[in-house]
Fold:
Amino acid sequence: MTATVLRREPPETPAESGSTKLTERVFRIRESGIIVVLALFVAVTAGIQHRFVSVSNIQFVLVNTAIFALLALGETLVVVSRNVDLSVGSVLGISAYLSASLFGGHHGFPVPVVFGAGLGIGLGWGIVNGLLVAAGRVPSLVVTLATLYIIRGIDILIVGGSMVTANSLPTGFLGIPKETVLGVPDIALAVAVVVAAGAYYLRSFRSGRELYAIGSNPEAARLAGIPIGKRVLFAFAVSGAIAGVAGVLWAAQYGTVDSTAGSGYELTVVTAVVVSGVAIFGGSGSAVGAALGALLLATINSALYVLGISDFWDQAIAGFLLILAITMDRVISVKLTAALRLRSTRRAA
Amino acid sequence: MKLRQTAGLAVPLVMVPILLAACSSSSSSSPSSAASSSSSSSSSSSAAGGLKTGLKVFVIPKNLGNSYFTTADSAKSGGAIAALDALSETGTETSGTADTPASQIPAIQAAVSKGANALIISATDPTALCPTINAAIKRGIPVVTYDSDAPTCRSLFIEQASTAELGTSEVDLLAKQIHDTGQIAIVSATASDTNQNAWIGYMKQELKKYPKMTLVSTVYGNDDTATSTQVTQGLLEQYPNLKGIISPTTVGIAAAAAVLDTPKYRGKVALTGLGTPDEMKKYVSDGTVTSFELWNPADLGYLAAYAAVNLASGKINGTAGQTFTAGKLGSFTVGADKTVLLGPPFVFTAANINQFNF
Amino acid sequence: MQPDLDLAPGKPPGPSRPGLASMRARAPWAFRWETGLALIVVIIGVAGVAASPNFLTSANLFNLGLSNGEIAIMALPMTLIIISGEIDLSVSSTLGMSSCLLGFLWSRHWPMIAIFVVIAIVGLAAGAFNGLLVTRVGLPSLAVTIGTLTLYAGIAEILLGPNTVSNFPTAYTNLGVNAVPFTGNAITYSTAIFAVLAVIFGVILHATPAGRSIFAMGASPEAAMFAGIRVKRIKTVLFMVSGLVCSLAGVLYTFRLSTAVQNNGVGLELDVVAIVLVGGISIFGGQGSIPGVVLGVLAFVGIQNVLLLTNFNQEASGVVAGGLLLLSVFGRNAASYSTRLRQRLPARGRRPAEGPAPGQATAGSQP
Structure:
């Protein structure tokens, strides 16, 4: 078997083309699938209510997606390595409050410092998560479940009964989510750039690709000399840092921050990530796909509100989509494995 | 040495400091005496006005970490505990952290265990707390509800402002801003909220006075900032000719204001409702919101405390027509259905908003 | 758990620490997680009594049973599922769904007995759905149950929408709030049900071949399958039992609050998982016990009650819960880490160990 893998690919023979086409098609399905679903959904909804695709609504949806797309990027790094980060909502919450309260009513306080603070807070918690998972060899599900509790608890202790209100934040800061360039919200562009950078990292940097290896087969990765601890720590650190920045954006978007900011976000983020094809058992998925998953969920939400459908359906729809996505994912991967095996045996023959 | 054994023992060793810290972080409440029987307090000396002192009163809001309740309850803001301190009682605020009955009930039970002489509760649900509250009442502990009622199982309800007045005045406020004409919508909290539905009922009635205004939709933001934002955006898309929004919930109005705070909507879509001055200062100053109303939550808590102490001292028992004084707020009369009304809603505008800090 | 029988020839008589090891050989129960946990429960009890004379009163125990009965009941099938190597995060949504179903059907004037039957069937179906997706389609239970957590909560939301149903007859709501007769007002129906179920589950897990199969499939699914254990069938049954038990818990919950509303039970799954982990059940599967989870219930619930009865700042309760969770997992990890370490280092005169000792679970791959 090994000999066949190392042999150079002979020019495509008719007997091979069937299974090769299948595998290539399947690899492209992962991301294009979600684009197709998104396009179909938008088309149908716009047909019913044309204001769904009005400029202002598209701007709303893009801004609402921005935070989740960021969180989805961080979560992708973690999930790809066969872990999960459930603490993102709590990190967002505590970062939103602490960094927004830095302004302290002084509208002249530099905004970049506030973003830096948010980044730092998130990074700190991400490192804590990563150390607990990597060094303590405790499953990330349990660790981040515990830190979800702990960070939210610390947030509640710090915030107590107070809140940050819009009048203590500079107008420029609050305006960040509202500025647009040629009609496209700045914030959406910025997030798109960050997601693209993340996708590039995962695809083209050795350490990024190693995350996939760790998720696919941890034992093999270890034997191959990949420093699993360092990579996993890095993934959690990035996820935390991103959640921290997302917290600052949250404060800018909503203007009022109390101890409930970000509650429950982890479920939405994990759903977005899994729906988009990032396999929950690690080893595959793309950052762009995850961001598209976040966009899809935000679009569905918006559609429900714009169409005036009772929003009591949104949870059921999200749950159904999640199960559908992981089922399809599994079916595809089974077929893919079979096709690859077939291709290898054919080449061996 | 066997680390497994150490690990087994390490956990209790770590627990001990946690528990010690817990005990030492206790607030200044007096240690609980064996007060498993009811309301006869440790020192029933009568202060001026015949009110008992030394009573243990527990203030149990819907949840902790909510700035509205912190204002209503805390001593610093002149709320319930400030009143209790003034009356020489022992006031403690406690509750769960989730706004649900399952989270609030253990706090109520613990308060009873700790020898409460009176309870002041903002109910997370109109009926779910009743078994627990009735058990307390049976032990002679008067239960006063404030802000959010449990109508069938409390000794007294302190109402922040007349339901009817709240509903009608908000429609009137909005009508003035949109010149009595146009489509309006309501951004509410949860669809099952008693207060919300009562106010909305009165709003719809008042709207009949304005034939040129139509209520096109009522949406629910679930008192969650992100959801309230999205439902507001959905409204703006669904009804491009929308002229005004009423949001009778502090979370909803703040979220809606953030959405409307752009040149596109400011001044074109009016917004009013129930909000706290701190949250709304920015939007009033930049013209997104002209006026909104509320009551003073601290006064509400203050009044509830006085009512509770009067009940526990036997000066009133909830019959309509009885009167009592509530310190700096003056004298109050118990109305029908064991309800005491705080007063009319207060309208905030650019002229007066900076005088308030809650 | 078998004692280490070190039969390698050439070994000096007795290991380097004769006292401990021979003690361990004679009484392995003294060094298990459950023993440490029992000690903790005792310490909590002592702390509770010291903190407040109301701690051990029947009234307080009654209230504890009331507030935590449903969570405790749900922890039992969760224990079996985690030991078998899976997880079920949809428990709270199943509870919520059954609560809303109860309200929905009651408001349409169905007779209560018929409602109970429907709820039981729906609970079994919900569990079966989870089980089939995990065993037949081969999906990881974490992902599946996150999906069904959302889906079932969504169904609960659709059933009742914004409405609340609270006009249940007192004959039934009394089941939620009254004590079981003749027990001196200390035991709630949910506590009694928990006790009965704990015995049943305990017997099944620890004294039947089915129970041994559950341990086996958690330790190694492939080996279990090759040993002839019907892994898929048993796992599906476990999920179905979980669904049934959670819908029963939903009925109790609804009667206790005499309210069926869409967000009943939200967030409880985290508490259930935390209790099971504190009880010493390994998240990797293959290890744990029912006595452990009973102690876990007592520890988790006890700590929160002690904190409530003292004047501990309730705002910090999340920190305590999370901390407890971390400590229990790290404690368990530290124990197995030290054992692995000890095996790798040759003791005086002892040959280096050749592989893990029997009965030791190696840290498997992440779930």
Q: What stands out?
A: The interface with chain B takes residues 49, 51-52, 54, 56-57, 60, 64, 156, 159-163, 165-167, 169, 171, 174, 178, 253-256, 258-261, 301-302, 304-308, 311 of chain A (CB under 8 Å).
